[in-house]
C-alpha cells in the first residue's frame, strides 16, 4: 500500500513544524511507520525530532517507528539538475554564471525540490505515513503550485519568446522572427546577454522531461494527501488560511482541518476575579480575557465561512524541545479528525 | 527611504503602515509602498485596497502597491526612456517573460520603482513594506546582480544609481522587524550578518514586536487569574532571554484583544514617537 501523505501548511510563524512533528510522534506512538519531513526547523525542535540537515531519514533513538529528515532547501536546485539532466549538462548548469542567481530568485524551486523529495519517500513503501512540513519560503498555496511553475520555467517559456516560437538547436539559436526584439533588448541589456541567457535556458530545458513527469506525479500525491492548514487567530495568518479554501481545490484535496495554534482557554473570556486580587493581576487577566474573546470570535467567524473541522492547540508557555513535549502537544490538540 | 522587512508573521506590514501614519501625523509628505503586494499594508492603513497608481489615504499620505507588469512597463518607459512600449504588445510580453526568468530583472524593476519615487522629491519619506527577510536580500542585491551580468547598456546605469541611493546612510534605512522568539531572532541575526558583510544598505535597525510587559507583583492569584499570570510570566521570561541575545533599538507591545488591522496600525503609530 502506498504511504499516506499529510501536508502541514499555513503562514510563516504559526507553528507548522511543531504541529507536523507532534502529529508524527502521535502516529508513530500508535504503531504507524512514520516519516516527518521538515524544512529548516528551529534547532531545539530539530533535536527533539532527531534530524539533521540534508540527511537521509533517521530513526528516532527513543521512538523507533518515527523517522525524521530535514530537506536542505539551499541544495535543492543542484539536486534537481543532477537528477534530471545528463551528467555533463548538469555540471554545466550548476557552474553557469546565471545558475546561482536564478536559483536564489525562484522560490518555487525550493518548494518543488521539497515536494520531489517527499514524493520519492512516498513511493518508497517504507512508511505508512509521511508528514510534510511545507517550506517557509512558500508558506501558502505556492507549495502546491510549485510543480507546475517549475515545469513552466524549465519548459522554456522565455526560450520560445527569445527564439520566436520554436526551440532551436544550439547552433541556430535565434531565428529571424525575433530579430527586432533582440536588437531592442541588446540596446537595453548590452550585447550578447540574451544569447548567454538563452544558452543557459537551453541547458535548463534538458531537465524538462524529468521535471514535468515528476510534477504530474507530485500533483497526484497532492490530490490524495490530507492537508492541515495551521493558523493563529491573527488577521494575516487567517487571511492566508482562507486562501487555501478558495485555491487549494484546484491543485489538491480541500483542507482536512484547520488547526488554530496558540489558543487561549475560552474560560478566560469571562473570568470571575476575586475581590482580593491586586489591580495588576486583575488588569492582566482582563487583557488576556480580551485576547481569548478575540480568538473565539476569529474561530467562529472562520467556521461560519468555511466548511472544515476546526481544531485547537493551546498556547504553550514553552515550545516543545523533546519527545515528551511533542507528545503533550498532540494530546492537548482538540477536535483533530482522524487522519490515518 | 525606509524599507521594512522581517521573518514571515512578525508584523512587518503593521509596523510599516504605522510608521507611515506616524510620519504623516508629524507633517511629512509620505508615500507607503506595498512591495510584496500582499494587501496587508492597505488594511493596516485603514484602506480597502491600493493599486499601482498612488492613492491618497489622507492628506500627506499616499499609498501604492507594486504590480510587476505595470512596474516593468513604467520602468522601461520612464526610467530607461523607451516611449510607446505599452503599445508594443509582443515586447511587453517578452520583457515580462524575461523578468520572471532572468535573475535580478524582476527585483531591479520592483526596487527601481521604489527608488525612483525616492528620487522624485515629491515625498519626504517613502516607507516600503518589503518581502520577508529570505527574499529581501535578493531584492537589495538586484542592482549588483544586474551589474555583474550586464556589462553595458542603460539598465546597468539604472542599477548603479539605485545602488548609490540604497547605500547612502543619509537616504536609506532597513528596519528588520522581529519577535522575541527563537526562529525570528536567529533569522534576524543571520540577515544582519549578511548585510554587514555586503554593505547593501545605508543603515539597519532592529525593532521587536509583541513584547509583553513585566508583572511586578509576586502575587500568584487563584483560578483563571493565576493561569493567566503564569502563562504571562513564562512567556515574559522567555522573551527576555531572546531580547538579551538580540537587543532591539525599539520594542512594541503585544496588543491584547485588538480586532482589526486598521486598529493595529493606528495603535502602533502612536508608539513610534515615544
Task: Summarize, please.
Chain A is 51% helix and 13% strand.
What labels describe this entry?
A: 340 residues, alpha/beta, 14 helices, B: 8-stranded mixed beta sheet, 10 helices, 8 strands
Polypeptide structure, described:
The complex is a heterodimer of chains A (about 350) and B (about 270). Chain A is an alpha/beta fold. Chain A contains 14 helices and eight strands. An eight-stranded mixed β-sheet of chain A has the order 3-4-2-5-1-6-7-8, with helices on both faces. In chain A, helix 12 links the parallel strand 6 and strand 7. Chain A is globular and about 80 Å long. Chain B is built from ten helices and eight strands. With about 270 residues, chain B is of the alpha/beta class. Classes of the chains: A alpha/beta (about 350), B alpha/beta (about 270). Chains A and B meet through helix 5, helix 8, helix 9, helix 10 and helix 12 of A and helix 4, helix 6, helix 7, helix 8 and helix 9 of B.
Helix-strand blueprint:
The complex is a heterodimer of chains A (340) and B (274).
Chain A: E1 4-10, H1 16-29, E2 34-39, H2 43-49, E3 58-59, E4 66-71, H3 76-84, H4 87-94, H5 99-104, H6 108-123, E5 129-133, H7 142-154, H8 157-163, H9 179-189, H10 193-205, H11 208-224, E6 226-231, H12 235-251, E7 257-263, H13 279-305, E8 310-314, H14 323-332
Parallel strand pairs in A: 1-5, 1-6, 2-4, 2-5, 6-7, 7-8
Antiparallel strand pairs in A: 3-4
Helix pairs in contact in A: 1-14, 3-4, 3-6, 6-7, 6-11, 7-11, 8-10
Chain B: E1 2-6, H1 12-25, E2 30-34, H2 40-45, E3 55-58, E4 61-65, H3 68-79, H4 89-101, H5 105-119, E5 125-129, H6 133-149, H7 154-167, E6 173-179, H8 182-198, E7 203-211, H9 223-245, E8 250-253, H10 261-272
Parallel strand pairs in B: 1-5, 1-6, 2-4, 2-5, 6-7, 7-8
Antiparallel strand pairs in B: 3-4
Helix pairs in contact in B: 1-10, 3-4, 3-5, 4-5, 5-6, 5-7, 6-7
What global shape of chain A is seen?
globular
> Biggest interface, which chains?
A-B, 65 and 68 residues
Instruction: Count every helix of chain B, treating DSSP H or I runs of 4 or more residues as helices.
Output: 10
Poorly predicted runs of 5 or more residues of chain B: none
What order do the SSEs of chain A take from the amino end to the carboxyl end, as H and E?
A: EHEHEEHHHHEHHHHHEHEHEH
Fraction in beta strands of chain A: 5-15%
Strand order of the largest sheet of chain A: 3-4-2-5-1-6-7-8
**What integer value in Å does the Rg of chain A equal?**
24 Å
Secondary-structure element pattern of chain B, one letter each: EHEHEEHHHEHHEHEHEH
Shape of chain B: elongated
Uncertain regions of chain A: pLDDT < 50 for 5+ in a row? none
What proportion strand of chain B? 15-25%
Radius of gyration of chain B: 21 Å
Structural class call of chain A reads alpha/beta
Largest sheet of chain B: 8 strands, mixed
Query: What is the rounded distance between the termini of chain A?
Result: 13 Å
Report the mean per-residue pLDDT of chain B as an integer. Answer: 89
Helix content of chain B: 40-55%
Strands of the biggest beta sheet of chain B: in what spatial order? 3-4-2-5-1-6-7-8
Level of helix content of chain A?
Answer: 40-55%
Structural class of chain B, by secondary structure, is alpha/beta
Amino acid at each position: 500500500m502506498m504511504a499516506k501523505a499529510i501536508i502541514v501548511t499555513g503562514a510563516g510563524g504559526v507553528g507548522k513544524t511543531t504541529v507536523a512533528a507532534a502529529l508524527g510522534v502521535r502516529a508513530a506512538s500508535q504503531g504507524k511507520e512514520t516519516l516527518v519531513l521538515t524544512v529548516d526547523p528551529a534547532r531545539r525542535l530539530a533535536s527533539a525530532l532527531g534530524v539533521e540537515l540534508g540527511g537521509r531519514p533517521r530513526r528516532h533513538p527513543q521512538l523507533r517507528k518515527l523517522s525524521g529528515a530535514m530537506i536542505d532547501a539551499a541544495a535543492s536546485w543542484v539536486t534537481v539538475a543532477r537528477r534530471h539532466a545528463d551528467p555533463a549538462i548538469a555540471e554545466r548548469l550548476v557552474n553557469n554564471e546565471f545558475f546561482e542567481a536564478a536559483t536564489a530568485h525562484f522560490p518555487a524551486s525550493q518548494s518543488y525540490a521539497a515536494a520531489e523529495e517527499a514524493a520519492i519517500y512516498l513511493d518508497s513503501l517504507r512508511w505508512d505515513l509521511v508528514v510534510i512540513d511545507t517550506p517557509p519560503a512558500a508558506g501558502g498555496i505556492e507549495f502546491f503550485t510549485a510543480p507546475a511553475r517549475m515545469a513552466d520555467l524549465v519548459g522554456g517559456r522565455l526560450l520560445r519568446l527569445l527564439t520566436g516560437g520554436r526551440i532551436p538547436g544550439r547552433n541556430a539559436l535565434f531565428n529571424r522572427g525575433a530579430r527586432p526584439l533582440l536588437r531592442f533588448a541588446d540596446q537595453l541589456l548590452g550585447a550578447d546577454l540574451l544569447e548567454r541567457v538563452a544558452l543557459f535556458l537551453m541547458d535548463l530545458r534538458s531537465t524538462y522531461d524529468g521535471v514535468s513527469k515528476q510534477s504530474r506525479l507530485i500533483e497526484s500525491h497532492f490530490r490524495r494527501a490530507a492537508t492541515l492548514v495551521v493558523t493563529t487567530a491573527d488577521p494575516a495568518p487567517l487571511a492566508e488560511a482562507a486562501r487555501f479554501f478558495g485555491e487549494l481545490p484546484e491543485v489538491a484535496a480541500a483542507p482536512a482541518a484547520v488547526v488554530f495554534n496558540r489558543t487561549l482557554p475560552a474560560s478566560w473570556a469571562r473570568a470571575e476575579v476575586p475581590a482580593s486580587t491586586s489591580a495588576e493581576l486583575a488588569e492582566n487577566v482582563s487583557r488576556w480575557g480580551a485576547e481569548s474573546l478575540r480568538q473565539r470570535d476569529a474561530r467562529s467567524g472562520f467556521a461560519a465561512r468555511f466548511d472544515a473541522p476546526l481544531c485547537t492547540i493551546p498556547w504553550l508557555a514553552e515550545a516543545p524541545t523533546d519527545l515528551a513535549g511533542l507528545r503533550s502537544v498532540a494530546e492537548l490538540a482538540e477536535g483533530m479528525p482522524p487522519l490515518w | 527611504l525606509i524599507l521594512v522587512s522581517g521573518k514571515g508573521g512578525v508584523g512587518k506590514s503593521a509596523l510599516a503602515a504605522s510608521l507611515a501614519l506616524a510620519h504623516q501625523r508629524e507633517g511629512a509628505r509620505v508615500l507607503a509602498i506595498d512591495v510584496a503586494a500582499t494587501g496587508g499594508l492597505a488594511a493596516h492603513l485603514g484602506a480597502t485596497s491600493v493599486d499601482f497608481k498612488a492613492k491618497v489615504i489622507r492628506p500627506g499620505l499616499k499609498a501604492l502597491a507594486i504590480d510587476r507588469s505595470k512596474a516593468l512597463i513604467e520602468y522601461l518607459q520612464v526610467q530607461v526612456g523607451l516611449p510607446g512600449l505599452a503599445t508594443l504588445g509582443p515586447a511587453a510580453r517578452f520583457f515580462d517573460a524575461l523578468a520572471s526568468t532572468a535573475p535580478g530583472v524582476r527585483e531591479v524593476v520592483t526596487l527601481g520603482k521604489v527608488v525612483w519615487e525616492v528620487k522624485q522629491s515629491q515625498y519626504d519619506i517613502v516607507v516600503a513594506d518589503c518581502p520577508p527577510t529570505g527574499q529581501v536580500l535578493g531584492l537589495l542585491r538586484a542592482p549588483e546582480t544586474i551589474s555583474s551580468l550586464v556589462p553595458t547598456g542603460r539598465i546597468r546605469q539604472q542599477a548603479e544609481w539605485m545602488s548609490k541611493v540604497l547605500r547612502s546612510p543619509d537616504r536609506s534605512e532597513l528596519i528588520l522587524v522581529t519577535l522575541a522568539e527563537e526562529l525570528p531572532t536567529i533569522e534576524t541575526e543571520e540577515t544582519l550578518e549578511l548585510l554587514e558583510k555586503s554593505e547593501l544598505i545605508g543603515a539597519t535597525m532592529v525593532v521587536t514586536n509583541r513584547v509583553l510587559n513585566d508583572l511586578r507583583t509576586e502575587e500568584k492569584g487563584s483560578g483563571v487569574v493565576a493561569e493567566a499570570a503564569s502563562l504571562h510570566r513564562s512567556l515574559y521570561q522567555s522573551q527576555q532571554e531572546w531580547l538579551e541575545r538580540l537587543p532591539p533599538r525599539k520594542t512594541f507591545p503585544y496588543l491584547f484583544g485588538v480586532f482589526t488591522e486598521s486598529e493595529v496600525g493606528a495603535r502602533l503609530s502612536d508608539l513610534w514617537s515615544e
